[in-house]
Amino acid sequence: MAFDISIEAQDGTGSFGAYVARPKTDANAPVIIAIQEIFGVNAGMREICDTLADQGYIAICPDLFWRHKPGIELTDKTDAELQQAFDLFGSFDMAKGIEDLKATYETAKTLPGSTGRVGAVGYCLGGFLAYMVACNQLADATVSYYGVSIESTLQEADNIASPLMLHIAKKDQFVSPEAQEKIHTGLGTNKFVSLYSYDADHAFARPNGNHYDSDCATLANKRTADFFAAHLK
């Protein structure tokens, strides 16, 4: 796909693209960084950005797989694509991903039309990275959908200094009940954190995904919309 903007990597190794969706109004708006799943900046992520733009935000979705290959775009519809996505996840450098999100954050603050307020929302891999964005204080408000491996980095939560909302799937095949319990125990008393659990599988809010759950997605997305309206506008 053709990306809308290019962002310089902080390590000087190159630049990466990002999809940008803008609201129809000419008024300045907060920016929300949409953080990809293991499928790249695909149609689902662009749809999420377009929805955020309809809600009055500038949405930016950086291509975090660019160090493998720019413009990777997969779905969950075929075994071959799923295998490729899991392979990418297995070889993904989390530290470099967070570094690229730092560069995205700096770009987001100064995008034309930006108010300087920046939020972030992530899904799956992006759900974990969204949690790390909050831990690294790279957003004014952050939402994580079914983030994987959050329970292994709970020691980072002491650094959270802005509102964070987590949507957790009770039937998540990639986040065990034990891991979910650790997340609730580790974050439940943090004054910045709101936790919500849903009777659904992983990726219940993925547009047109195999495990999409309309009722749970609608509720979670409404909570997300209200959360960003309260903390970014």
UniProtKB/TrEMBL annotation:
InterPro entries in the record: AB_hydrolase_fold (IPR029058), Dienelactn_hydro (IPR002925), Dienelactone_hydrolase-like (IPR051049)
Protein name in UniProt: Carboxymethylenebutenolidase
PANTHER family recorded: ALPHA_BETA-HYDROLASES SUPERFAMILY PROTEIN (PTHR46623:SF6), CARBOXYMETHYLENEBUTENOLIDASE-RELATED (PTHR46623)
Pfam families: DLH
MF GO annotations: hydrolase activity
Lineage of source species: Bacteria, Pseudomonadati, Pseudomonadota, Alphaproteobacteria, Kordiimonadales
Domain Dienelactone hydrolase: 16-231
Cross-referenced Gene3D superfamilies: alpha/beta hydrolase (3.40.50.1820)
Domain of life: Bacteria
